[in-house]
Amino acid sequence: MVLIIDFGSQFNQLIARRIRECGVYCIIEPPTLAIERMREMNPLGIVLSGGPSSIYEANSPRIDPRIFDLGIPILGICYGMQYMIDTLGGKVQKARKREYGFAGLSIEHQDEIFQQVPKQSQVWMSHGDSIARLPEGFIATAVTDNTPFAAVADSKRRLFGLQFHPEVAHTAKGKQILHNFLFAVCACKRNWTMQAFARDIIAEIQQKVGDRKVILGLSGGVDSSVTALLIHKAIGANLTCIFVDNGLLRKNEARKLKKTFKEHLKINIRFVDAGKLFLKALDKVVDPEKKRKLIGKVFMEVFEAEARKIRGVEFLAQGTLYPDVIESRSAFGGPTSVIKSHHNVGGLPKRMKLKLVEPLQYLFKDEVRRLGARLGLDPELIWRQPFPGPGLAIRILGTVTEKRLNILREVDAVLIEEIKAAGYYRKLWQSFAVLLPLKSVGIMGDSRTYEDIVAIRAVTSKDAMTADWAKLPHRLLGRISNRIINEVRGVNRVVYDISSKPPSTIEWE
Ligand code: XMP
Known about the structure:
Blueprint: E1 2-5, H1 12-21, E2 26-29, H2 35-41, E3 45-48, E4 74-77, H3 79-87, E5 91-107, E6 120-133, E7 139-143, E8 151-154, E9 159-162, H4 174-185, H5 194-209, E10 213-217, H6 222-235, E11 239-245, H7 253-264, E12 269-273, H8 275-281, H9 288-308, E13 313-317, H10 322-328, H11 348-351, E14 355-357, H12 365-374, H13 379-382, H14 402-421, E15 430-444, E16 447-460, E17 468-469, H15 474-487, E18 491-496
Helix pairs in contact: 5-6, 5-12, 6-12, 14-15
Bound molecules: xanthosine-5'-monophosphate.
Xanthosine-5'-monophosphate binds next to loops.
């Protein structure tokens, strides 16, 4: 295992993903981690991440300096390197010129870190401070035009520092450099596979749960589905899944899910048909936040009522992923403002005195997909694009009615069919339709029409934090528009959303 100390860089999760891509398990911990705990973890290597602070700031994050006496190889990146140099007796100062963007790296000393890296290569920089003097034992191993200490090393103590970011794709040989740290310096083994993970986590669930009962809210997304499969493998019939059909789902979605889970996977599952309740709660509601809050509230009530029918439940399983775990304990970010309220069953464990089981809390999304494939989950479920909890209600601007839901379902079905046929479904983060609260005039045959408008939204993204509108081919857009207007009654105009996030969001509400 490799330990990453999180000094707050926006790239930290990337470091972890790169290391795991090399087949090595790693975890991210805050700098407040006690040195005793670090010893217990016994990592093969430690990465000190970058961060937004300057080492001179009064409250810049620091870690117990005894970390350098553990005898474990350490790689400091950007702030992590500056912290190491400063702590070990060197000097860091404000750079004459803030460096941001590409730089040409020249290797002057080809140590283990630079195996199979050409003497000249492109790296990516983002820093305002630089090293002015090295501590004893260190040498500079690479330079750039602006930085005589672009890479430094004390190979005797196996301490390495990089001023640039090896984890970002802009650093041409970044992956090789991380690979070298893991295998040439730390002697890690490539043993992080989804097969090994599944074996270990299933045993862990068995140990934790024993012969007690677990409930799980199944949404039909990949996270809750993989969670269900894992727990089912561990405890079989003691798992009960609850699927709340809120009536805000896409065409045939509930039916397909039923089939997959009941018939193919033979998992205990309770379907609650609650569409009417949700529609009643949403009656005449227009405000997006109100919609979200109401849907969250009704969902909780329905879920809890169903859960209480199952006797002797002690655990609630959730498909929480590693990025949520890291973000929820973010050491540096202040409280962020609520842009959109997401609902979940957060309050339930306390009210029903349930303990949590979160088997995916160590994994990134791409790992969950790989794990799902290993466990034999239907590829359609594995590659399903994200779908928001409040469902189509937040894609129908204005009031939500059964009639409008049906229009949007038909539009969405046509859209997804065309996107899949053109081979775009997996390339896009999301592609969906939004029903606008407006009508426009059209002409059909010889007569005037006055009907609904739908907007098509298709975006590319890595993590939904930022997103670009997708540059779909005009021919595909044309086909989508033609089919929607011809096939869906009540729609006479289709527009394409060409806004990116930020400043827009992915969903319209
Ligand atoms: P926004 O619209 O904030 O969406 O750019 C970012 C991502 O989150 C999804 N989303 C939700 N997912 N419950 C969810 O489970 C929600 O309430 C919710 N709202 C937005 C959205 O589809 C996108 O992928």
